[in-house]
Each structure stands twice: as C-alpha cells, then as structure tokens.
C-alpha cells in the first residue's frame, strides 16, 4: 500500500513537472522573438522620424503600439508566473499550469501576429 501511495505521489510530480516544462518551453520560444520585437519597433520608429508628414506615419505608430503591447504582455506574464509548485495540492498545480500554458500560448499568438503585421508594413514602406 505504501508503495502505491509513493508511486502515486511521484507520478503526480512527474505530471506537474512535465506541464511546467511545457509552459517554460513555450516561454523560451516566445522570448526568442524579443529581438525581433525590438528590431521592428526600431525600424518603425526610424520610419516615423524620417517621414513625419507621411500618410503612413499613423500606421507605423499603430504597429509600434502592437509590438509594444505584445512585448508588455510577455513581461507581465513573466512577472506574474510562479514556477514554485511545492506549496499547493496537485490539482491546484495542474489547473494553474494549464491556465499559464494557455496564457503564454495566447501571448505567443499575439507576438506572432504583431510581428507578421509589422514586418509586412515595413516591407511595404521600403518598396515605396
């Protein structure tokens, strides 16, 4: 009986660690986009400064804002994420990690959408 309880506890910890690793893996992938966010903001800011009276300046500012919001969402998530799973019961840990995985995946989508849209805009402005 004691073996079953010990293996059950070990299995729960393995489940938690696996889900936690999945969340951290997504986070690391998203953080790999940080340089692209900064590069996009820099390129758009340079466009705004070089073309203050362009009809496209408001659009450039819009894309700067999209990139900034996506970056901020990641920073807020990182600040709020608590990887310590030692004080809560298994069910709470699994629910928390499931929610965090969903959040970080949404942020990944937000970042990808902002990068895609701003990259297309930057390419369009360079061809004009």
Walk me through what this model shows.
By secondary structure, the chain is an all-alpha fold. It has one domain. It is built from four helices and no strands. The chain starts with a helix and ends with a helix. The N terminus is likely disordered.
| Low-confidence parts | 1-7
Q: Termini separation (Å)? A: 74 Å
- Strand fraction equals under 5%
**Domain count:** 1
Helix count from the secondary structure assignment: 4
Structural class: mainly alpha
Please give a handful of descriptors for the protein shown:
128 residues, single chain, mainly alpha, rod-shaped, 84% helix, disordered N terminus
Summarize the structure.
This protein is an all-alpha fold and 128 residues long. The protein is built from four helices and no strands.
Give the topology, please.
Blueprint (H helix, E strand, L loop, with lengths): L1 H30 L2 H17 L6 H24 L9 H37 L2
Helix pairs in contact: 1-4, 2-3, 2-4, 3-4
